[in-house]
Amino acid sequence: MTTLVAVLVDGLIYSSWLFIMAIGLTLIYGVMKILNIAHGSLFALGAYTAASLAGHWFEQGYLPMGSYAIMLLAAILVGIVAGPLLERGLLRFMYGRDEIVLVLVTYATFLILEDFIKLVWGVDPYFLYQPYGLLGSFDIGELTYPNYNLLLLAMSVAIGGILAWTLTRTRYGKILIAVIHDREMAASQGVNVSLVYFVTFTLGAMLGALGGALTAPMISVQPGIGAETIVLAFAVVVIGGLGSLPGAALAALLVGIVRAATIHFRPELDLFSIYFVMAAVLIARPKGLFSAQEARKI
Amino acid sequence: MRIDRTIIVLTAAMAALLAFTPFLPNWAMFLFTVSLCYGVVVLGMMLLVRTGLVSFGHGLYYCLGAYAAGTLEPLFGITELAVMIGSAVAVTAIVSAILALLLRKYRDIFFAMLSLAFSMILYGLLVKTSSLGSTDGFNVTVKTLFGLHIADTAYERYLIFALTVLICWTCAVLMHFYLKSHRGRLAEAIRDNELRVEYMGASVANTIHLHYVMSAVLAGLGGALMAVSVGHIDPEMAYWTTSGEFVFITILSGTGSVLAPFLGATIFESIRSFAYEYSPNTWQMALGITMLMVIMFLPGGLWSLFKRASRRVA
Q: What is the CATH number of domain A2-284?
C-alpha cells in the first residue's frame, strides 16, 4: 500500500516537472512548427542563472524566502533576453523552410549555447540546495516529502491553467488559434503574424528557463543537463501529440507514473521505460495521443 | 569505355592511405581511422537523407554494431576480427529489418523522433547493464584476423587500419553503383514526391525499407570498426548527441557524391582533434556556427563547393 502511494506521489511530482519542461516546447511547436532542440539550452540557462543569482542572494544573507522571487526573476530574465535574440536574430530567417531543417537549425543553436554556458559558468557544478528544504515537509504514511514538490505541482497546474484559459477565453488566444490553423489567412485578416511568433517564442523560452530555475534546487547544475532534459521533453510532447496542450499534460502524467513505478519495482529499467512508452505510443498512434488530422498534399 | 571519375578518386585515396599511413605518426593514423569509421556511417545517413529522411537515432546501429562485435569475446570467447565484423553486420541487418517495418510508415519529425526513441531505449538498457560495464563500457580485444595471430604484433594496428580502408572503399564503390541504379535513383524522387512515385508503379515502402536497412548496416560497420580500432566501447555511442553528430556531418558534407561523407568526416574529425587540443570549451560552438552557415549559405553542403569549382573549370 505504501509503495502504491509512493508511486502515485512520486509520479505526480515527476509529472509536474515534466509538464513544465514540455509546455514551452509544445507551445512553440504548436504555433511556429519548430521542434526546438535549443529548449534544452534555455532550460540549462535558466538553471545556471537561477543558481548563481539565488546563490548570491543567500551569500549576502538576505531574507531566504526572497530566493523564490529571485529564481522566478532569473527565468524571466533569460526568457526576455534569449527569446527575442534567437527569434529575431536567427529563426525568423528560417520560416517557411522544412520542419526538419528547422530542427537542424535549433540543434546548431543548442550546440552554440552549450558552449556559451561553459564559457560563462565554467564546467564545475553549481549547487542551490537551500530553496528545496526551506518550505518544510509533509508526511504521507511513513514517507516524507519536502513541500517544494507541492510548489512544483502548483506551478505546473497554474501554468497549464493560465495557458489553457488564455487560448480559449481571450482575444489573444483566439488570434493564436487562427495563426495555428492558417498563417497566411490570419495575416490577410490583419493579424500581425510576426508579432505573434515573437511573443510566442519569447514566452516559450521563458517557460523553458522557468523549468530550469525550478529544477536547479533539486539537482547539481552542471554541463549536460540540457541534453538530458531535452530528450525527456521530446518524449513527452511527442507522446502527447506535437503542439497539443492537453496532450502534453496527459503524456506528462503517463510518463511520470510509469517512471515512478519502474523506479520502485525495477530500478534498472528507469530510462528504458520512458522511451519504451514513447515508442509504444508512436507505434499505436503515429502522431501522438492528441493530434490533428492533416490533409495529404499531392 | 569511360572510366568513372569517382571510382578513380576513391581508389587513388585508398592506395594513398594504405601506402603512406605507415610512415605517418600515430595520431594521424588514428585520425584517419576515426574519420573512416564516421565516414561509413555518414555514407548510410546520406542515402537516408537522399530519400528524404533524417534519423536522429542512427547511434542505435552504430552502438549495436560496436556491441555486437565487442561482446563476442566476453560471451563466447571469440576474438577473430572477421567474425566480429560479420556479427555486427548480421545483428544490425536483422534489427533494422524489423524496426523498418514500423519506421517506414513515418516521415519528417516523427521519423526522427521514433528513431531517437529506439536509440535511447538501447542507451537506457546499456547504462544499467553492469555486466557490460554500465556507463564506463568495456575494452574490446582482437586476437586474430582470418586465423592469423595479430594481437600485440608490430603490424596489428596497420592491419586493422588496412581492413578499415578496404571495407570503406568497398562500401563506397557499391553505394556509388547503387545510387546510379534504377532503385537508387528513386531515392530523390521519393524525397520530392512520394505519391507520384507510387503512381508510376514503384514501391515507396520497399525502397525506404531497403535504404533504412542499408544505412543501418553501414552504421553498424562503422561502429564495429571503431570498436576494434579504438579498443573500447561505451553506451554513449547510442546517446542522441552521437546521432546528432552523424546528422551534422551529413549536412556538412552534402549528399552529392559518395566521396562527400568521407571528406566531411575527415574535416569534422580534424577540427575536433585540434579543437580538443587548443580550446575544448568552444568546439561545439564552432560546430554550431558552421552548421548554421552551411544551412543558410550552402544547402548542398561542402560538396556543392567542389561541384561549383569543377563546373567553372569545365
A: 1.10.3470
